[in-house]
Write a structure and sequence with these properties.
Elements: H1 4-11, H2 13-19, E1 31-37, H3 41-51, H4 54-58, E2 61-67, H5 72-79, E3 84-88, H6 89-98, E4 102-108, E5 113-117, E6 132-136, H7 142-154, H8 159-162, E7 164-168, H9 170-178, E8 184-187, H10 189-196, E9 200-205, H11 206-212, E10 222-227, H12 228-254, H13 257-260, H14 263-266, H15 271-283, H16 291-306, H17 310-313
Parallel strand pairs: 1-2, 6-7, 6-8
Antiparallel strand pairs: 3-10, 4-10, 5-8, 5-9
């Protein structure tokens, strides 16, 4: 069984307060509760679904549960405050190993990268020797672990000792590189896109890191996650949600005007930033998962396990293909 007390404590009191209150009442009959960060990319999809009335046309009663951060979503799911969340499949895989049977369907394959100022002399990771590298998240962030594995392979040194990592929140690190207080930043895709659209350049993408490590095709890390027990009674709702998301993404992938209504919640600081975010989002719309993607996910998990971080994947976590919903062969 999962030690939920440990999970909630590790998430922090603020996350619990943000996620758990909705658990005190069940959703109305036929309603699907979807957790979403207010200004995250999922909110863009939800706005598109509602504007085009895709949910109504599909007969889907969607109740959006706003959570304070990406970390609050898993808390809400396990505490019963949401039926479906968006999070990493690596987290869901660990939960399956602990006994909480979850399911995953890809939402986005967008990944971040290492970004520097346009006029920076740094052109590759070999130039990060002795430099301050901002790292979004913590020392167990997946992109950071992948970058360390990549640096060991390509330059024969661990990035953790080669550069000077500075861990922190993604928005804060973006501001620090804008002000010149750090030399480079490894940031999540939304923040990396905002930077590259406003006077910065990407010198290494996490997508290329994965491919160099033999993880190709690059699998989506982020997706919709729900409990198997919920699906047993609400499989039609799950399918409706996944279908309307695909429909919304098909519009966002090709119709620039569909983004006009999103600009107030995307909140770009310039046209260049706006175009960069749009392009990055479109590039991250995932293709259907098949055998190749599942095998890539298996390789990715092994790379993360080999990185030696039990806190991320958990000791003894086994790859379970049953996590992945309706993967095509």
């Amino acid at each position: 069984m999962i030690d939920r007390r440990r999970l909630l404590a590790s998430a922090g009191a603020g996350l619990v307060a943000a996620a758990v209150p909705r658990a005190v009442h069940a959703a109305a009959a036929g309603t699907l509760r979807l957790a979403s960060v207010k200004y995250g990319s999922l909110s863009w999809v939800i706005e598109t679904i509602r504007a085009l009335e895709l949910d109504k046309k599909a007969g889907l009663a969607l109740d959006v549960v706003e959570v304070a951060s990406n970390q609050a979503g898993p808390v809400a799911l396990l505490a019963g405050g949401a039926d479906v969340i968006v999070s990493d499949w690596t987290w869901a895989m660990r939960q399956r190993s602990l006994g909480e049977k979850l399911k995953f369907s890809a939402y986005s394959s967008a990944l971040g990268g290492v970004v520097v100022a346009d006029n920076s002399p740094i052109t590759g990771i070999s130039g990060l020797d002795g430099k301050t590298l901002g790292v979004a998240g913590s020392a167990i962030d997946k992109s950071w672990l992948l970058l360390r594995a990549y640096s060991k392979k390509t330059i024969g040194q661990d990035m953790a000792s080669y550069a000077h990592p500075q861990f922190g929140a993604a928005p804060l690190l973006a501001e620090q590189i804008r002000s010149g207080r750090i030399d480079a930043v490894l940031n999540f895709w939304t923040h990396a896109a905002r930077l590259t659209g406003s006077g910065f350049k990407e010198i290494l993408s996490i997508e290329s890191v994965m491919k160099d490590l033999g993880i190709d095709p690059v699998p989506a890390l982020v997706g919709f996650i729900w409990k198997e027990s919920f699906e047993e009674a609400h499989s039609a709702q799950i399918e409706k949600l996944l279908n309307v998301v695909r429909e919304a993404n098909a519009v966002l992938a090709t119709d620039d005007s569909a983004w006009d209504r999103l600009r107030p919640i995307v909140k770009p600081k310039s046209d260049g930033e706006y175009r960069s975010i749009m392009a990055a989002y479109r590039a991250g719309i995932p293709k259907p998962w098949g055998t190749a993607e599942i095998e890539s996910a298996r390789k990715l998990m092994q790379v993360l396990v080999d990185a030696g971080d039990a806190e991320l994947m958990g000791r003894g976590t086994q790859f379970d293909v049953k996590l992945f919903h309706h993967a095509t062969s």
